[in-house]
Design goal:
This protein is α+β, with helices and mostly antiparallel strands. 39% of the residues lie in helices and 19% in strands. The strands form six sheets. Strands 10-11-12-15-16-21 form a six-stranded mixed sheet, sandwiched between helices. Strands 1, 13, 14, 17 and 18 form a five-stranded antiparallel sheet that branches.
Amino acid sequence: MKKTFFTVLISFIWLYLPAQTTLQPNKNQRYFDINKNIDIFNSVLKELDMFYVDSIKVDSLMQGTIRNMLSGLDPYTEYYSEEDMDDFRFMTTGEYAGIGAVISYKDGHVIVNEPYEGLPAAKAGLKAGDIILEIDDKDMRKATVQEVSNALRGIPGTTVKVKIQRPGEKKPLVVKIVREKITIHPVTYAHVVNGNIGYFHFGSFTENSAKEVRKTFLDLKNKGAESLIIDLRGNGGGILEEAVSIVNMFVPKGQEVVSTRGKVKQWDRVYRTDEQPLDTLIPITVLIDTGSASASEIVAGSLQDLDRAVIIGNRSYGKGLVQTTRGLPYGGSIKLTTSKYYIPSGRCIQTVDYSHRNPDGSVARVPDSLARVFYTKNGREVREGGGITPDIIIEEEQLGRISYYLVMGNIIFDYVTDWALKHPTIAPPDKFAFTDADYESFKQFVKSKDFKYDQMSAKTMQTLKEVMKFEGYMDVAEEEFKALEAKLVPDLDRDLELFKDEIKDLIANEIVKRYYYKKGVLIYTLQKDNVYRKAIEVLSDGDTYRRILQPAKDSSSGKKV
């Protein structure tokens, strides 16, 4: 049954793509196959509706089937029903009408996870941890996150009444919130460091975000910035044209930034800078990590290819696929991958090839050994197929397994909710410190929750033990195995102490977010940020900066290669 739906719906979606008009060697056969499968589809749906033992929910059945079908293509081709279009518009524009808060499901209730700074939820006094009980007198105790989200959104200027249960309070609270048109500011934080180095963190490529970057950059220059740090870490991308506009600020007019190529040749495009730049000489570093994707990689990669910036951090995500939105009947849309993009050196940064899957359905990365070499404007070697590799790599520290479970199990979130009740104010982000005494109280809190966590290493040891027994090696290595196994047994007291520093940082981040929002967390983390420090170091030494942007020399001949 699933296979039939899958086959039929693939053909169904293709009806809406102009690509089907491209000439095919056996066009008549293809049209026959499409019509045949539409007939099969109609018949299957009628049979289910008429004779299936239970009443079927056609909408949910169809939407689930479509999404399952698309998941076999790539992670970015997605279907949006009419009901989902608000979420889609927010994703692309950064705007929606509501109260300005992140909500999530926890312990059987929908809670406020994070109110946004300066927006209605925060102005009305909602706090992280608040349980949503009612909205406009409608019971929400058993509602889903989507149902609560729909109830909170509405026309700007209208008032919504929200009843909440706040941890530490005996009686529920009723809060009236005036909805607004919510726009998430793409620039999280900007400042001048060391008197002459401008820094800003850029969070998303939504509509008009390039204008905000332009304003931020000019403001930093007015404050004395003579060099620039662009922080794209954690930026998952967005609108391609916004990325081109940002690159345009720093490279000459008429420069190719990115090109797109796909099946429909009429859709292939070359994106060039079409305005006069703001500054083609200011030294720039761009910070990236594994969370930097798509439009972030266009900015970082094109500036690297043009030798216009030094890239610092970790290899980026590697999303070189372009999506196009196509309207569907009854208010829905499909966002589908239509092409790949190529940056100025000619390389494509797409890390995996979704069109050639392994037999088990998995998709492998392009091996570094198979990645083709390309060259920057100055002749430096760069490679395709693996995201953007920084000019200076600074490895990210990996969290201990216990830290992961403390976050995912909401232990840290719940502790900070209690902690905040006892601390009306805290020091500014750059001065705040989570003390050892507080950490001792956190350890007691964890133990009171009967916290359990699993270790991947312990699971792996169990698998190894089974293999050793099967292959007959247990007798000769039993003592060594037992000694290693003993060290890998989860020990809460030991691991809370072993990973103390990173757990303290996670707690401090959550605390600072409660009082100073995302901007405060960024200010706090920059104090101990090795990638940020390296960027300052590079920009403070002009010779080092210029040397990085030149090709490596062959030590034996002294020639550039």
